[in-house]
Amino acid sequence: MKLCITGGAGFIGGNFAHYWVNTYPEDRVVVLDLLTYAGNLQTLQPILDRPNVRFVRGDIRDRQQVEALFEQEHFDAVVNFAAETHVDRSVEDPEVFISTNIIGTQVLMDACRKTGVSRFHQISTDEVYGDLPLDRPDLFFTEQTPIHASSPYSAAKAGADLLVQAYHRTFGLPVTISRCSNNYGPYHFPEKLIPLMITRALADQSLPVYGNGANVRDWLHVSDHCTAIDLILRHGRVGEVYNIGGHNERTNLEVVRTILKALNKPESLIHFVKDRPGHDLRYAIDPTKIETELGWKPQYTFDTGILQTIDWYLTHRDWWERILQGEYQDYYRQMYKDRP
Ligand code: NAD
Ligand code: TYD
């Protein structure tokens, strides 16, 4: 199989590239990534020298480049992770979210149509469903929950989902969509809650908790997300949406306290700060469809996954310290200076 992974130098795409290359070593994998601030070639370093892995620096919005690559490679499947992903950045500057998340998805699907790709898989998010109230623990997001986005980030992701479904209905493009809950694990960029809190706590810096810390997220270890995508690619029904989540709801304050306890740091580091505008209250996935239809089962609970993740950050300081120092952006230049 010839697989294109867009956004593969980011957190989940990078983990997925590792997963695929190690699980299906005979497959050809091409990673297409613009290397924005969130992309880091060091994440791919352990697999870059494999003969059937190719990295291409490129923009999914660049129609000419994308179509030339697709005509050259003739992919069987495309998994689209490439996106602007940080909600707080989308509040500051929505425009790039609209262009990358929506137009970029359209350009990729046009290239799939032109070159006869057998499967376009869109990595979406549970944030397209909006949020659930804190006082209704009986409510969960199902695939039938109406789209009801809150932030420019989730609205742009929702726009892309609608376009993917329209390309399936109108042009017969063979698509699938997955909507996963919050991920955590290795190679997570330290602007997001869990890696931010781990790296700041290690430096005895204050931990900024938005509002009163009561907002709830449903945390899934990134490796469980990867196995779910694999199942959808191999056995999922074309045109379908699959929700992915493992019933691991925690308040933000619970998450931060768990990290402090594991690192043996004091709760006095917690600092409540002004809330995020439009802050979603609670996300919670009902994973019945992917469990019953595809037999997916997560390997990690939050309690086991968070300890594995903290351990990874302790043993891979070089990876995140280079990010905090900004050095990771020189890495591409160094790695590729002799490769035209
Ligand atoms: P990330 O921000 O870590 O990585 C995004 C990657 O996309 C980066 O490598 C970046 O360089 C690349 N990129 C950005 N714009 C690009 C462009 N125009 N062309 C090519 N590449 C570009 O994101 P992530 O957390 O790994 O998320 C990956 C996908 O999963 C996203 O689509 C996101 O919406 C979705 N998702 C994330 C989560 C989560 O908890 N992180 C949960 C559910 C769904
Ligand atoms: P984040 O990792 O940005 O993911 P998302 O907003 O996509 O769910 O944030 C997770 C939760 O943590 C969210 O409720 C906002 C909160 N949060 C903080 O309290 N402090 C922070 O510094 C950050 C980055 C997030």
Strand order of the largest sheet: 3-2-1-4-5-6-11
Bound small molecules, deduplicated:
nicotinamide-adenine-dinucleotide, thymidine-5'-diphosphate
Whole-number radius of gyration? 19 Å
The outline comes out as globular
What is the H/E order?
Answer: EHEHEHEHHEHEEHEEEHEEHEHHHH
Overall pLDDT level: 96
Taken as a percent bin, the fraction of beta residues is 15-25%
What composes the largest sheet? Answer: 7 strands, parallel
Helix content: 40-55%
Class computed from helices, strands and strand pairing: alpha/beta
In terms of per-residue confidence, which ranges show pLDDT below 50 for 5 or more consecutive residues? none
Spatial gap, N to C terminus = 27 Å
The number of helical segments is 13
Number of strands: 13
Describe this structure as you would to a colleague.
The protein is of the alpha/beta class. The chain is 44% helix and 16% strand. Strands 3-2-1-4-5-6-11 form a 7-stranded parallel beta sheet, sandwiched between helices. It has a two-stranded parallel ribbon with strand order 7-10. α3 packs parallel to α5 (95-115) and α11 (302-315) packs across α12 (317-324). The model has no long low-confidence stretch (mean pLDDT 96). The structure holds nicotinamide-adenine-dinucleotide and thymidine-5'-diphosphate.
Note the topology:
Layout (H helix, E strand, L loop, with lengths): L1 E5 L4 H13 L4 E6 L11 H4 L4 E5 L5 H11 L3 E4 L6 H6 L2 H21 L3 E7 L26 H20 L3 E6 L2 E2 L8 H10 L4 E4 L5 E3 L1 E2 H14 L5 E4 L4 E3 H12 L6 E4 L14 H7 L7 H14 L1 H8 L3 H9 L4
Parallel strand pairs: 1-2, 1-4, 2-3, 4-5, 5-6, 6-11, 7-10, 8-13
Antiparallel strand pairs: 9-12
Helix pairs in contact: 1-8, 3-5, 5-6, 7-9, 11-12
The structure holds nicotinamide-adenine-dinucleotide and thymidine-5'-diphosphate.
